[in-house]
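INFO worker-7 received task bundle
INFO bundle size: 2
INFO processing item 0
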Amino acid sequence: MLDRFSNWLMELFNVPVHSFPAFGPAQMLDILIVAALLYVVMRWIRRTQAWVLLRGLAMVLVVAAIASVFDLITVWWILDNAISMGLVVVVILFQPELRKALEQLGRGQYLIQLTEESEQPVHTSAHTADEIIKATRVLSKSLTGALIVIENEVDISEHERRGIPLDAQLSVQLLLNIFEKNAPLHDGAVVVRNNRVSSASCILPLTAESLDSSLGTRHRAAIGISEVSDARVVVVSEETGTISLVIDGKITRNIEEKQMRDMLIWGAPAKSRFSIFKKKKKR
């Protein structure tokens, strides 16, 4: 049974069953190239939601192993045919991420990144959380709608590029001016990266989930971006002034300020489901 599973894996990855090539300079170069490619792919995965693909692939392989050991013929047949179409499905589902990766490769950015230190995301500071809370408090009282996205580890620049770049210091006054009802940047979302307002008037993807009729487009956009990233999203309803916080596709309405402050700070609550390949903290 295990032999059949191992043979299937070798056929899947096109590896000969009995292949022991001689080791020399060419093989060393081959290993170095593969290692470099794996390094680039891992760095790309760390900043995208492509980790879901890896987890799904791992689960498929586990189920395939179980089907092989216990002779689950039907399950084996389904998995065998599903995996054969896997590459096409991956290209369709991750077309935006693959396109972005190829664009960066074409510009030579990945080659530069191989010799540079990986940029680590900056934790959301307590000051940033307090400024956002103060601004949403004022916006709530005046029934002014707002949508604030705090980026964490997963890169959301694909959506950010659709807005107006600012790169400004975050403050209560800036947020109030952006979301002023007659202001040109009122529509859309504000993206906060590294404790700064990176851009405004950004268009976000809407969730396909069925929501309560009292939730409008802002809430749909907040849930949508949280479904494809680990961002924390603050929403102020224009109709009711209700302040909500969205994380991992789950919305908390009428959230208390203390609770929102704790959840806005990067890393507080428990680790997000998108946080992978984290470095261990130094003692």
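INFO item 0 finished
INFO processing item 1
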Amino acid sequence: MKTVIIGGVAAGMSAASKLKRLLKDHVEIVVYEKGGEVSYGACGIPFYISDHIKQGKDLIARTAEEFAKSGIPVKTFHEVTAVDTDAKEVTVKNLQTGEVFTDTYDKLVIGSGASVRHFPPFDREYSNLFEIRDVADGTRVKKALFDESQKNVVIVGAGFIGLEVSEACKHYGKNVTVIELSDHILPAFDTEISQALEAELAKNGVEVRTGTAVTDLISEDGRITKAVVKWGEETQELPVDILINSAGIAPATAFISSVEKAKNGAICVNERMETSVPDVYAAGDCSIMKSAITGEYTYAPLGTNANKQGRIIGDILGGAEPKPFKLIGSSALRLFGMDAAKVGLSEKEAQARGLDYKAHTITGNSYASYYSSEKLNIKLIYDAKSRKILGAETYGQGIVVPRANYYAIAIYAGLTVDEMGFMDLCYSPPFSGVWDAALIASNTAK
């Protein structure tokens, strides 16, 4: 069996590694990767930029050469430009030589990821316009930040990467402004969580402009000097030394047209990562699958999902029964002195779907009250009739993200707030009060 894999990062290499372990020499695998790096931890790039991680190579799990030694040849700087699913053939361009050739497959795995959206005015190249998709991008940004003459950083987009990079830039003493088109940062979160994070950013010297768009870029000799921003009827020119475009991503799927796609271009897959075309699988940021909570297609471009989805494909192609995977939608971040996490549905997501739900929020102690004074907030979303947990958001100081993880497990298991309220959790003062904050939030849900 010959398996062609498009994309050599989380999903693609997870599938390749699992498949090779299962079938060994009974499978031929070839991986085509458009970039020069494979199997890297993209979520760690902001921490590499901040210099918390000193070297970019520390983000790379295995190199192309290491994969080749294990029987998985990876062809970097090779872009798949077209797929003929009837002929089971891919068209590939060598980006270094310009050579174009075709290759055949028995099974095709698409793990092509997503790319930064290059909408106007970010559809031109400038020497000081950056984006962050791979380690090499992180190195370019880091090098620019080390230049003390570069004072003013403008970041467009207040998602996870944009916000984490804003903190990284402050480590270099820069003047940092974050521009976000939505009315609050992290649009997936409910407003009160976003507002708490905005206050934390402001406290640490990051200026946040929500409800604001970058309408034009003023440049000299190919270098941006000012960004023109607009909110309502007001406009302003912001000084720019470094501009980072982090305003959303688009699934990289233009090379294939025969599979079913969502409106954003992501390839639709089922729980076995199968597309609408036989023998074609997709996983990671280029794909979209149904939520285990709502049953609706939900785009969740995270490395955690990509690795699990890739492994499922490896199991299936290798003849093994894959472990069950339910897409819940779990994410977290740390900004300066505040942590935040979200699992399942937010209140606004439940409301937009017309669900009969209740919302309940508490402020509790991260530890035993006599041990530490750090506080966290827990917001629960649950079904009004069945009382099953639909979502949770946690934010504050101390042990914040693990509390959200409790609720991820509860959602996965279909627990009610009442069942969660008497969960037998570990107790010790350095970790929680005798009644953990998660238990208190569940027990006080009316």
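INFO item 1 finished
INFO post-check item 1: The mean pLDDT is 96.
INFO post-check item 1: The first strand starts at residue 2 and ends at 6.
INFO worker-7 idle
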